[in-house]
Amino acid sequence: GRKPIVTIDGPSGGGKSTVSRLLAAKLQFTYLDTGAMYRAVAYQCREQGIDPDDNARVTNLLSMLRITLLPPDPGEDDVRVLINDREVGTSLRTPEMGMLASRVSAMPLVRASLTGMQQEMGAAGYIVAEGRDTGTVVFPQAAWKFFLDASPEVRAHRRAAQLRSKGMEVDEQALLQQIVQRDKEDSERSIAPLMAAADAHIIDSTGLDVAEVVNLMLRIIQENP
Ligand code: C5P
Asked: What is its EC number (predicted)?
C-alpha cells in the first residue's frame, strides 16, 4: 500500500532542497536529503584518495561508512552531515563535489548501499525524500511523488545565488555547463537514472517562486489523501 512519504526528484538547481525543507516543516515530516549521502561518499573518496572506479576500495569504504543527517540550522537549507560522527561543512556543497558525487553515484555498489540506508531511514514513513530516484527506486510506495524541473538557465541562476550566499565565488556560465553535463550523466546512466516516476506530479518551477511550489504541492497532497 501507499506509505506516508513524499518524494521530490529532479535535476540539480530545481529548488528541491529549499522546497523539501519547507514542505517537511509544513507537514511535520523529516527531510531526507539523499544527494547529501552521495556527496558524503564522494567526500570520503577524495579524503582517502580513492578512485571512484576502484571497486575494492569503494566496497571497503562503504562497509565502514556511517552517515548521520541532522536537521538544517535555523535559516539554512542544507542538512548537517556527519560522516562517522565527524561533521563536514560546506565543502560537501561545492560544484566539484557534485560532479564527483555524480560519478560515484553511477556505481551499482554505491547505489545499493545508499538505497538500503535510505530505506531504513524512511522505514517508519513521515519523511520528505529528495533526490533523483526516490520516487522510482528508493520509495516506490510513496503516497505523493513530485518531479521538480525548471529551465537549465533558471536552475544555473538559482544555484549560483545559493553558492554565493555560502560565500563561494561562481562563474554562472561555467555552472550552467556543469549543470547540463551532470543532468546528462544522471539521466543517461543505466541504473536508477534521473526520471519522473509514472505516478509523479510534474511541476515546472521556471515561473514560480519557492512558496508557490510548496503551496502547489500541499494542495496536491490535500487533494490526494
Ligand atoms: O542533489 P545533489 O546535487 O546534492 O546530488 C549530487 C549528485 O548525487 C547528483 O548529481 C546525482 O548524481 C547523485 N544523486 C543520485 N541519486 C539521488 C541523489 C543524488 O544519484 N537520489
From this structure: 2.7.4.25
